[in-house]
Amino acid sequence: TVSGDATFTAQFEALPKYQITATANNTAMGTVTGSGEFTVGKSTQLRATPNAGYKFVRWADSGAGWQNASRYVLVDGTKSYTAIFEAVTP
User: Fold this and answer.
1) CB 21 within 8 A of CB 72
2) pLDDT above 90 (res 33)
3) pTM
4) How far apart are CA 67 and CA 90, in angstroms?
5) Residue 65 has pLDDT above 70, yes or no
6) What's the first-to-final CA gap in the chain, in angstroms?
7) What CA dihedral angle connects 49, 68, 22 and 39, to 10 degrees?
């Protein structure tokens, strides 16, 4: 119970940020975007783009589960992702 004038002060803390690193297994085969430092709880999009004569196969961190070249990842810690590219066979 407040019986007179009172002053309250709110204190805020910045949410932690984590590094997300996305790379290609071979930069001659393709490029990857989406790396950076992001606030915990956010999601970021990673994209793997093959160069001519190559194709995106999968993300190495997840086996056959992530075969889409574009994916969103939840930022909950420092993580690394590798896009696997291979040559297109005729």
Assistant:
1) no
2) yes
3) 0.80
4) 21
5) no
6) 80
7) 120
Q: For residues 46, 52, 57 and 58, what is the CA-based torsion angle, rounded to 10 degrees? A: -10
CB-based contacts of 81, cutoff 8 Å, min separation 6: 20, 21, 22, 23, 32, 46, 59, 60, 61, 73
Reading the block at residue 69, the tokens are: 């070249």
Q: What pLDDT is recorded for position 56?
A: 96
Alpha helices by DSSP H, 32-76: none
Which string of b and e fits 19-30 if b means at least 16 CB within 10 Å? ebebebeeeebb
23 and 34 Cβ atoms separated by less than 8 Å: no
3 against 63, higher pLDDT: 3
CA-wise closest residue to 83 among 16, 32, 12: 32
